[in-house]
Structure formats: C-alpha cells, structure tokens
Amino acid sequence: MGRGKGPEVKDAAWCAQPCIERADRQQCERLLTDKPTNASFELGNGTTVNEFILLGFPMSRNHQILVFLGLLIVYITILAGNTVIISISLLDRRLHTPMYFFLGNLALLDICFTTAIVPKILINLVTNGQTISHVGCLAQSYFYFLLGTTEFLILAVMSFDRYVAICHPLRYNTIMNNLICCLLVLGSWAGGFLDTIVQTVLTFQLSFCGPNVINRYFCDVEPLLKLACSDTSLIVFLDFVLASTLVLGSLLLSMVSYICIVVAIVKMPSAKGRWKAFSTCASHMTVVFIVYGSCIFMCARPTQSSSLDSSKIVSVANSILTPLLNPFIYSLRNKVMKDALWKALGRGQSSWKKETPGISQ
Asked: Residue 214's beta-bridge partner residues?
C-alpha cells in the first residue's frame, strides 16, 4: 500500500535499485526511517529474513565503477599507511616509548575497522549487488562497534599519556611503565568487547521477518533494530547506557587531560618549551576532534529523512576518512616519526643496492 500521494513503493527490492528517481528515492528513505509496518514491505507471514539489502548511495553503473576504483585506492592507502606506522614503531628503537606503542595499536585498530566495512562495499560495487547475509550483517555490526568503542578508549589512553608526559615529566617513566601500558591497551580492548557483546548476543536472538532493507552502506545497528519483529527495547536501552558511559567517559577523560595540558603549557616560561609541548599534542588533538566530532553529530542529528544523506556522509568520514588521515596526521607533524621513516627507507635502499649487481654505492 502506498502512503499518501506520489509513486507507490512496491517492495523493498524496488527501493534498492541503483537508478531510481530522486523523488522516489526520497520516498523510500522516508519509509525506511519509520518502524516498518507497511504490508507492501513484508516478505510474507512467518518468513525469516536470510539476507539484508544495503541501500547505500543509489547511483548508476558508471558511477559505481568510479566509486569502486576510488574506494579501492583509499583502502590500499589505509592498509599501507597504518602498516608503515606499525612497522616503524616496532623496528626503530627510538619509537619504543608508550606514545608510539599506543599509536601502533591505534593503527592496528584502523586497519581492522576499515576491513570490517570496506571489502564488502567493494564486493557489492564490483558485482552490482547490495545484499549481505543475515549472519554477515550481524557480524559486521558487532566488529564495527567493537573496534569503534575500542578506538575511543585508546584515544582516551593516549590523552592520559600526553597529560603525564607534559604535566609530570619527571615521573613519566615511572607512571607509564611497560606493565601499565599493556594493561591500558588490554583494558581498552576488553572495554570494547564488554560494551558490544551483550547487545550482540541479544541481537542474534531477534527475529527478522521482513522488510530487509537497511538504509546505510553497512549494517548499522540503529536501522537494523528497526527491522526486527521482536521487542528491541532492552537492546536499545543497554546500547544507550553502555555507549553513553564509555563514549562520554572517554571524551570526558580526554577533555580533562587536555585542559590540564593547556594550563601546564600556559605556565611554561619559555616560548620554545610551550611550542614543543603543544606540537607533541597537536596531532592527537586533531584526531580526537575528528573522531568525537563525527560521533557527536551522528548522535545529535535530527531523525527526519532529510538528514539521512548527511548521516551517511558523516559515517563515511568516521569509518573511512579518519583511518586514511591518521597516518598522515601523525607522521607529517612528527619529526621523530619522519626521521625514522626516512632512516628505514634509506636502509632499505642501501640494502637493495648491495644485493643488486651493477649498482654503485
């Protein structure tokens, strides 16, 4: 059944077509944002959903090819850039410090985070498909929020590390010893796991009997829960409480750390000392602003369908743009990291010259 005037939405697959008119697509988005009770979307009484349709950004086939090529280049860049940070942090002794230990973990998180999302998008683009299996969708949603929550906690740990380094420099090595650093990282991963495992177990127990269209480019939990035929009030409540506790708690820790850092920097007598202290925090502050800014926008955005495209764009920035920028932000503004990178490249070039006949030193 249609809803009001305008073209009738026949079924869920119709909404997922890449070439539908903009007016019809807007109608689809309005319908998909509501709790779906319209009989025209139903797959049938008692029918179990075995796969979901990811609506994403409907586009023509030519545009899909261009997006595929661009996204593939971005994904390879993310893998290469973050792998370089991890490798340099392990190989160069000067980077065997808590700051670069946490940075290496952040780079690993970025690799895993994008790998949970991008490969499936690439497969759908190259095959001109938009489907994902029921189990695959729930698994993707779990890993997305597990890794995302862990990243928030790692960023808070990195803020605390900078606070200790600037506000308590004489006690830094004592406070941030190897055991404490490992416990902080393990605690971040454990916090992400505990934050998402309960909702994931409850979500796996939900029944999905139709419709099966998710108005995102990945399995986001909010539109996924709207498709459930079971009661989701407990999952929504737990998600709100746990997410608010961890996300807002990590944001509060980061804010308090940087307030103390700013106060300590202002009190420094030397302008050179103030600049040096600020430069060690500038990269991390930039990443914190991007990650938390996009998250706050997603949580505070209006619920009307007019905000759907903007929320999709912000989620792209959060899941793809941030992991892409992190290696450049931390390497281009960090003299020690740049020196270690050039040293590794020079060592590799010298080794190649020695092993290649006919190449003079």
From this structure: 54
Amino acid at 236: V
Contact 16, 55 (CB under 8 A): yes
Measured distance CA(129)–CA(11) in Å, rounded: 17
As a dihedral over the C-alpha atoms of residue 226, residue 227, residue 228, residue 232, rounded to 10 degrees, the angle is -10
**Cα 99 to Cα 272: distance, rounded to the nearest angstrom:** 21
Q: Is this model's pTM higher than 0.85 or not?
A: no
Task: Give tens-digit pLDDT for 22-46.
Answer: 444 544 555 444 444 333 334 444 4
Could you tell me the maximum CA-CA distance found in the chain, to the nearest angstrom? 78
* 342 C-beta neighbours (distance < 10 Å), count: 10
pLDDT tens, residue by residue, 133-153: 888 888 888 898 899 889 999
DSSP 221-258: HHHHHHT-SS--HHHHHHHHHHHIIIIIHHHHHHHHHH
Amino acid at 216: R
Task: Say how many C-beta atoms besides its own lie within 10 A of residue 352's C-beta.
Answer: 10
